[in-house]
Amino acid sequence: MNGPRPRGLRIVRLANFVAPASGGLRTALRELGKGYLAAGHEPVLIVPGARASDRGTGQGRVITLPGPPLPGTGGYRVLTGRRRLARLLEELAPDRLEVSDRTTLRWTGTWARRNRVPAVMVSHETADGVLRTWGLPEGAARRAADALNLRTAHAYARVVCTTEFAEREFARIGARNVVRAPLGVDLAARHPGLRDAALRARYARADETLLVMCSRLSVEKRPGTALDALRALRRRGRRAVLVVAGDGPLRPRLERRAREGALPVSFLGHVSDRGLLGALQASADVCLAPGPAETFGLAALEALACGTPVVASASSALPEVIGGAGTVAADDGESVAYAVDLLLERPEADRREAARARAGHFGWDTAVAAFLAAHDAAVPVRPAAPQGR
């Protein structure tokens, strides 16, 4: 018997460290929100910003609360004022809570338990990896991460990890409430057909290798490794140039290094035009992803979807994501340069075809279904989406 269709769940999502120029987290929040909305649920996103706002968008309702910027982070803001945020949560009366910050927002797990709201924490980075990039010794970083992760696992009904790599630090503390849910890429918007000869010629001559790095320029991303690799490649005789799409607190220092070392680097800052960014990714010969603490790497996945292979940090989750559609390297310029040379020995058609094929395993439909399953929320059955060109 057909009964009335149940209403969708109100899924309230909280996220910190979302700057106007931030990339991966903002993309993930947007695409998951769109997916939740398409599945018949009611997503509500709460983020910090310079001023208050409340608007309907293609990813659902987005509420911005004034939050102070964190010094030295290049614009990241955080949600402050627990009482204000708790009152807002009570007014929204969520059916599910999804939190993307296990540091300053971990208290929301207690709020959710007290209000009988099933809550998940999304692990967007490895805690010990980030602490190591900040200079903490390995042993101390691991102990601090284990303590943080133990409290996180106890505070939430589930912890969502996007890769096996991200899951390992919870497995080692014996957490049993961890589920896996990959992120994705828009396979129709990112495709090899975006390759633009005129755009490529703007940055590289025909006999030059065009390297692209799409990354936030902050310490945990290790963007300086890309400059080290460029120097090593040119010393070996490869005519290579680098384009950096992204902004962050390290940009002035990196620009100074490039200038003093006479390195051919173009710093574009934050590229808000997604079409331009896709064309840049598709027109490059190799994408560099040097961040050692990455737990997924959306920019690298977008490059693969555009048919551009990736050289990634062997210390990150990216080897798991890129598979054979790229190479991995230790976290130093010489190793990355060697990996670039190794990758470019493959026939261009083969390496570009392999990149696109690998990206085809990571559509956003798959990601949305996995996240909704983590919420015990209904997942619609829809025809397979076209995989793009």
What does this structure look like?
With 389 residues, this protein is α/β, with parallel strands linked by helices. The chain has 2 domains: 10-184 and 363-374, Rossmann fold (3-Layer(aba) Sandwich), CATH 3.40.50.2000; 192-359, Rossmann fold, CATH 3.40.50. The chain contains 15 helices and 14 strands. It has helices at residues 24-38, 82-92, 107-114, 127-133, 138-155, 164-171, 197-203, 224-235, 251-260, 274-283, 298-305, 318-322, 333-344, 348-359, 364-374, and strands at residues 10-15, 42-49, 53-57, 60-66, 96-100, 119-123, 158-161, 178-180, 209-214, 240-245, 265-269, 286-289, 310-313, 326-329. It has an 8-stranded mixed β-sheet, sandwiched between helices. Strand 5, helix 3 (107-114) and strand 6 form a beta-alpha-beta unit. The radius of gyration is 21 Å and the shape is globular. The chain starts with 9 loop residues before the first strand and ends in a 15-residue tail after the last helix.
